Amino acid sequence: MAQLTPGTPKIINFMRYRKPLAIVSGLMLVICLLSIIFRGLNLGLDFTGGTSIEIDFTHAIGQDAVQAQLVKAGFRDAIVQHLGKASDILVRLPPQKVTHANLGQDVLSVLTSAANPGILKSEDSVGSEVGNELYQQSVLAVLLALGLMAAFVALRFKFNFAFGALMALSHDVLFTVGIFSLFHLPFDLTVLAAVLALIGYSLNEAIVEFDRIRENFRKLRKAEPVEVVNISLTETLRRTLKTITTVLLVVLALLFLGGSALHWFAVAMLIGIFVGTYSSIYIATAYALNMGLSKEDFIINKRRVADDRP
Q1: What confidence tens digit (pLDDT) does each residue in 6-42 have?
Q2: Are residues 181 and 120 part of one domain?
Q3: Which residues does 53 contact at the CB level (< 8 Å), separation at least 6?
Q4: What is the chain's mean pLDDT, rounded?
Q5: % of the chain with per-residue pLDDT over 90
Q6: What is the number of domains present in the chain?
Q7: Other Cβ atoms within 10 Å of 94 Cβ, number
Q8: Which among 3, 27, 179, 237 is placed 20 to 30 Å from 49, CA to CA?
Q9: What residues contact 177, with CB distance under 8 A and at least 6 apart?
Q10: Which DSSP category does 101 fall into?
Q11: Same-domain pairing of 77 and 93
Q12: Pairing state of beta strands 42-43 and 186-187?
């Protein structure tokens, strides 16, 4: 039995559960993929088009009060948020069933009052064609990020690791987006930004584990591949727990204190940090192990190096 580095706790047999968890992950991904295909995403104004209206009131005004007034006036599916201060409101409206000649002024007239007059600061519209183009570019951005990350891992480590990393990153993206599809949560550019951030987070976790696995394959030459992987994951467990705790504190702060503008970003990050930590162990590392990791992949043959010298 190979030994851990001093101060490391008892070896945890992570890989013991890799096969049943692979089945569970596969079933979840099928559900998420079917939901994305048949149910679709609840796309925000960034992708569907609509109008953003900024109004600066004399006094503070509540988001719930603004939302209620808009619903009463017949404006559907409005998103209301504060911009920096409680008197500055941003109203985001999808295309309305009733055509308005001057949508900004109509919204202003509904919300303003003698006790709290408001000023229309800006009105910006995004057409449906622009939103659709932005959606397509977003999909390409995610695919490009996945490809470049896999290429980086292939150059730094081995193809086994690159394939495992690509599977893990694809798993994280599909699972996070699938949850938004299953529960019909709003999907906008902030959520897309969270998905791209999660790709980086998940890859960082995988690379830390890959580095330790490569190091231990060279150091523990008599250990079996599964044992080396379990030792490496056990040695990096403390660092993983510290990382996820730190990120979780930040995400929870954004979720409860960041306001509506960052709410769904924080929700996507909250889902992703757990999924990314899980996938770095049971997707990235497990797939690499199943593809035949061995000590010959990492141990430098000194005799061969000497023979190759001029």
Answers
A1: 555 588 999 999 999 999 999 999 999 999 999 988 8
A2: no
A3: 90, 91, 92, 93, 103, 104, 107, 108, 120, 122, 123
A4: 83
A5: 28
A6: 2
A7: 18
A8: 179
A9: 32, 36, 41, 187, 195
A10: T
A11: yes
A12: parallel
Q: What is the C-alpha to C-alpha distance for residues 291 and 299, in angstroms, rounded to an integer?
A: 18
Are the C-beta atoms of residues 198 and 187 closer than 8 Å to each other? no
Residue range(s) defining the domain that contains residue 77: 50-126
Where residue 279 sits, what CATH number does that domain have? 1.20.1640.10
Q: CB of 293 within 8 A of CB of 224?
A: no
Nearest to 110 by CA among 58, 59, 61, 72: 72
Q: Are residues 67 and 190 in the same domain?
A: no
Which of helix, strand or coil describes residue 300?
coil
State which of 126, 149, 169 marks the end of a domain.
Answer: 126
Q: Are residues 103 and 31 in the same domain?
A: no
Residue closest to 210 by CA, chosen among 282, 290, 284: 284
Write out the E strands in the chain: 42-43, 50-57, 79-83, 85-93, 118-126, 186-187
143 strand-pairing partners: none
pLDDT of residue 203: 87
The CA distance from 187 to 134, in Å, is: 13
The CATH number linked to 105 is 3.30.70.3400
Using N-to-C axis directions, what is the helix angle for 18-34 and 159-182, rounded to 10°? 50
Q: Is the dihedral of CA 190, 196, 199, 205 positive or negative?
A: negative
Tell me the pLDDT band of 302, cut-offs 50, 70 and 90: very low
Helix (H, G, I), strand (E, B) or coil at 86: strand
